[in-house]
Known about the structure:
Mean pLDDT: 78
Distance between the termini: 67 Å
Strand order of the largest sheet: 1-2
Low-confidence stretches: 11-16
Largest sheet: 2 strands, antiparallel
Shape: flat
Number of strands: 2
Order of helices and strands: EEHHHHHH
Radius of gyration: 32 Å
Amino acid sequence: MSDETKTPTGGHDTVGSTEPGVQRDSRLAGLRPPWPKGVSGNPGGRPKKKVITEAMEQLATEQVPREVLRRLRLPGLRADAKVTWAYVIARGIAISAAKGRAEACSVFADRLEGKVAQAITGADGTPLIPPTFAQAAVAIFGMNDAELEAFVKTPARGRR
């Protein structure tokens, strides 16, 4: 018995083929997904959180052991204080910022006020998106369906 069978059309089916009369290229056999057509290969989607993020969230609410507090020697915090890791980290950032460490100052300010918005500009300092384009985008987003259809059907001006 051979690995292939003759089909009525004269072609060859590979063993295990699901569609009779369809010739299969054995070189492509491993490229097909193992799930049926029309079904997602990742039905749950990408995980929403990472393992380290979940561990950090759990640890942030736990009480810091006395031994750790004793070793940290944070000013104004006794070794027998009952505080969480989140509190100790925030206090450490505040102390570092007060000492003038630029990175700690940046983290402290970003957490309080949010990151500073930065304009996207070219090398010469002019905006990369021209104001007329930005105004057009705002106008288009404000259109209803009928206005959009009329806009699309209008011949473009200035195109060559």
